[in-house]
């Protein structure tokens, strides 16, 4: 499976707005995720091996930091080419994997495009600056997605801890790695 890496996005970049449907039957706006100290937006999916391997990590991070950080996952993949990424299957996976935060569908792919998301998963951690979400960290979750017991560097966890401690954004922001977003053919 080819690897795709995210491109650099400057710290302080403002989160683009959105309105997307969730697997729980509710529509969500970006402003629904501005009440806490930060927000983690994850572009992900159901079928990619990288995304599948990291779902448990995101769920565990939510267990640890969900009181202080809003979490939201967004699936932008073309479900006509990848039926496993359909909204119906997303609903099944949300229940099966017990995803404790909103899992949203970006059917038009405009939200993924506005964030310049390129792979699954592609993680964007934003600091809440008085109701405006400013990019704090975009990048890799950890240094060993295939062998969770052998992770030595927890990039995303470390970034969350820095954000919550009121520290500057991490200098090292290695790019997210995963399967390319499955863009619709036009």
From TrEMBL:
GO-annotated molecular function: antioxidant activity; oxidoreductase activity
Domain Thioredoxin: 9-165
InterPro entries: AhpC/TSA, PRX-like1, Thioredoxin-like_sf, Thioredoxin_domain
Pfam family, one: AhpC-TSA
SUPFAM superfamilies (alphabetical): Thioredoxin-like
Name of this protein: Thiol-disulfide oxidoreductase ResA
Source organism of the structure: candidate division WS6 bacterium OLB20
Source species taxonomy: Bacteria, Candidatus Dojkabacteria
């Amino acid at each position: 499976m080819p690897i795709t890496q995210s491109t650099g996005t400057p710290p302080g970049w403002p989160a683009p707005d959105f309105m997307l449907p969730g697997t729980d039957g509710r529509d969500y706006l970006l402003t629904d995720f501005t009440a806490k100290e930060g927000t983690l937006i994850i572009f992900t999916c159901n079928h990619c091996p990288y995304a599948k391997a990291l779902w448990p990590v995101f769920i565990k991070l939510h267990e640890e930091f969900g009181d202080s950080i809003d979490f939201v996952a967004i699936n932008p993949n073309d479900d006509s080419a990848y039926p496993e990424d359909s909204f119906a299957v997303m609903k099944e996976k949300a229940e099966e994997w017990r995803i404790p935060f909103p899992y949203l569908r970006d059917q038009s792919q405009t939200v993924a495009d506005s964030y310049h998301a390129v792979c699954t998963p592609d993680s964007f951690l934003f600091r809440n600056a008085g109701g405006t979400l400013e990019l704090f960290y975009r990048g890799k979750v950890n240094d060993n997605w295939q062998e969770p017991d052998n992770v030595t560097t927890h990039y995303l966890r470390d970034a969350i801890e820095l954000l919550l401690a009121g520290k500057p954004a991490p200098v090292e922001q290695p790019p997210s790695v995963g399967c390319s977003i499955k863009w619709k053919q036009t």
